Model the fold of this input.
Amino acid sequence: MSHRPRTRTVLSCGLLLVPLAVSAAACGGSASDQLSANPYDAGDQITANTPDGKQKADPDKPLEVSVKGDEARITDVTATDSTGRFVRGELSADGRHWRTTVPLAAGTRYTVRVSTEEEDGSPGRKTLVVHTTDADGQLTAAFGPESGEYGVGQPVTAELSRPIKDVKARAIVESALKVDSMPRVEGAWHWVDDKKLHFRPKTYWPAHATISVHSNLTGLKIAKGLYGGPSKPVKLTTGDRVEAVTDASAHQMTVKRNGETINTIPVTTGKPGFSTRNGVKVVLGKESFVRMRSSTVGIAAGSSEAYDLPVYWATRVTWSGEYVHAAPWSVGSQGAANVSHGCTGMSTSNAQWFFNTVRVGDIVKVVNSGGDTMTPFDNGFGDWNMPWQEWRAGSALKSKASTTTGAAEREQSAADDARLRPGL
Done:
């Protein structure tokens, strides 16, 4: 190989960090016509720690590039993934070696462009294509509820595809599950178990809020052999703040919209032995007709407490079968006594009004009942019955601020995530 003679003054750069396409010429020396010379193929001079043939590179190891012989040095390296995002790396002071300084992503194609320079100033170029092996497993998150409009009590849920037990891995996962809201609120994730998380604000969501939920798990290393995969985002909005508060001892429900009382309804709740649960519940669904059988809640057929009834305008608040519904058979007791088996009963017209007024996610609270308090997670959404400090203790990111980002901050947050993500 013959090269045109060049003369060039080279200044030492020390350890050169290469987050983007950074030329060694930026450290010193004059820009001369050497820079415009047609580069030669430096393929014979460049070696990399990538497997040959059809084998793929291990994403758990750094990608390393070196130059052979004493006649050339590396002046510039740019590495990008398949989407064009740059990979950070460092060049040794002598220009002989370059390596990535962030983890690579699994199952990804990287293009590495290496620039060299010989002693006479002749520029060389070499392009390497590196494929990393797929992860042994992928972790994804299924967010809930589905996109749509909900009441201000609706928690956000994330169901992971694999259990995560390790505390450090949990912190990695949780930091990648993003909840953005307008207006901004204080809120946090809480690990219900190894696969399920709930997110709620410190207090209820604001009325007419917009909540966007997405994952930054894709390509993220969670643990050895486990990387994040894609997850479908959801977008929620809240309507008016609708709260129904039932005073079991007064046999009365008060319904408020945005803080103003819009209806007061005489009701009956659970009688002794079947007392309605105290605490905050969230509307889970609405059924204009449901057949209620006592056998589904453990009451034996044929016993004195057995029942089998057609029920209309039923608004569900627990998975075990607690509803707010029409109870025309108990109108005489509504407003005066508690005679139900745990549900909140009211007249047919009032039940229809309630059914048409509330939406999934609205708040239904019971006070002054002889029953236990609604549990947080195993029978619907009782999340609001857990004190905030206890809720925050269930986060893997206890030391970090628990706030959502607003629209103005979301773009900056996305930019920050891009800089911090493995492989970027």
Residues 1-36, 407-424 have pLDDT under 50 and may be disordered. The chain has three domains: 16-131, 137-240, 242-385. The first strand starts at residue 16 and ends at 18.
